[in-house]
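Researcher: Let's try something more involved. This one mixes different molecule types, so please make sure each is placed in the same coordinate frame as the others.
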Amino acid sequence: MSQLSESILKETTVYLGPASKKFLERQTQAHLNGLQFDNLEIQHRDELVKWVGISAGLLIGKDKAAELATKIQRL
Amino acid sequence: MVSARHSLQTKLTASFVILILLISGLTFFYTYGATKSALKDTIQDELAQVAGVMATQVNGDSVILLKPGEENTTGFIAIRDQLVGMRANSKEITNAYIMKNSGNGIVFVVDDIYGTDPDAALIGESYTTGETSTIFEAMKSPVASKDFYTDKWGTFMSGYAPIRNSAGETVAVLGVDMTADKVIAKQDFIGYTIYLIMGLSALIAGLIIFYFSRTMIRDIRKLNDTAEKISMGDMSAMVEVQRNDEIGELASSFSRMVASLKIMMSDDDDKP
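Model: All components are placed in one shared frame. Result:
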């Protein structure tokens, strides 16, 4: 797992709990051309941030999702 | 929905209000008792001081000349009027009089109500109550009653001071009375003031506790509502509690748990 993937997973777990890995995997595969989350690189970050903001909003509400997206953006 | 009787908010508010009332009540009784005692001491000092000041204004040589039956002499009238004038300067004092030791006990010499009140004491009229020991004590220096006493004129607290002649010898004692009603009214005023302040404090504290417990319970209810919706299969339910305290932490944990549950329960093809 890349260092970026690890940091994003750690941050996301605070908001989405133990299923975060599954959630992030789903985002990269669905929106980043089937990319494995473990192989995430810095150039994928912005696109992931966008989809995390949208998808997490359906789970934890828009405000918290935006908070999570901002945190990932800053990594 | 939990009934108001079993609600945590009711229990919290009631517990705190009872606690506040208990603390306020105990503080009230202690403060009131201490203040009452302090007020009594102050009044006693004041009475002794007033008597002391008034006694220095009276000519002891003139007092000693007055004999029974001389109530209408100019000497008596002059001293009585002097007492009336001095008493008028202090609205708290209801009577002023002069007594002396006749050898057989305490007797009146001048009563300032003579001529205006049929119950006024005459020259040589004996005075026998438990207060006589305090009057004997006043032959040396100004003193006040140890406590309220009752005689045929009413219930009083008094101050006494020695009247001296030109040779500096004590020839009589000047007494001033304050009615028990006035002292009790002062004590009651302090009591009511303390009671009012504590009552208001308890009320304000109760309202604050009610407000805080209400916001706390409201957020717990929100969490409970979300849990209930999810348990009934409504996966669109979200935790909408934003707090920075322990309930906020609970809400975050709960939100995390719910989010994970939603992710786990959704099929791979489903969003999100």
